[in-house]
Amino acid sequence: MRDINRESGVRGLFRGHSATLLRIFPYAAIKFLAYEQIRAVLIPTKHHETPLRRLCSGAIAGMTSVFFTYPLEVIRVRLAFETKNEGRVSLRGICEQIYHEQPARISSAGSSSALAAATTIPTPRSGLMNFYRGFSSTLAGMLPYAGMSFLTHDSAGDWLRLPALAPYTTAPNPKNPSAPPILRYWAELLAGG
Question: What is the separation of C-alpha 189 from the centre of its chain, rounded to a whole number of angstroms?
Fold first, then answer.
């Protein structure tokens, strides 16, 4: 941090922050919207509700949101690692640079024939696919993370609605008094919502 502050000043500590905000808002919106829609399909009634279905609903919602916002993550990372020595690069300049990048060439000299065959597989030379480099590893981490996140939230909400805790953690639903009670704000925050 001292080096960043010395080289770029306090503004350097926030490099890439605006891109983070541009990514996190659509990411969260898509994730929660997708979760509710997917949950309605996988769990049509209370009878169908199981931890596995909750986990799958969350995992698919996480996968959906990452698919749509991953290019913003690639741009954010590039902005965060932009150095002052290279000069200030605009957002458009970074997007063009990513779009036109070529994959690294791997020399097959002295390697096994299997490796040589693997390096001859055609790969995209540039284009929109460049914005999805590293997507599969991000997806591998997102599936359990998002699934467990929503499973934990829903399970904690259920526990906070248990009869022994309900008088302290729930409030009547003002929009529909006959509907199940809603969690109080602090209980919802405790459940992760």
Answer: 20
Angstrom distance (rounded) from CA 154 to CA 170: 15
Other beta carbons within 10 Å of 164: 8
Task: Say which amino acid occupies 143.
Answer: L
146/141 Cα distance (integer angstroms): 9
Among 111, 33, 100, CA closest to 69: 33
User: How many angstroms separate the CA atoms of 81 and 184, rounded?
Assistant: 42
What are the phi and psi torsion angles at 143 (to 5°)?
-55, -55
Query: What does the pLDDT read at residue 111?
Result: 54
* pLDDT tens column, 58-98: 999 999 999 999 998 888 888 777 654 566 677 788 888 88
pTM for the model stands at 0.75
Q: Evaluate the CA torsion angle 94, 98, 100, 105 in order and state its sign.
A: positive
**Would you say 151 and 58 are in contact if contact means Cβ atoms under 8 Å apart?**
yes
Residue 4 CB partners (closer than 8 Å, separation 6+)? 12, 13
Between CA 129 and CA 138, with CA 132 as vertex, the angle to 5 degrees is: 160
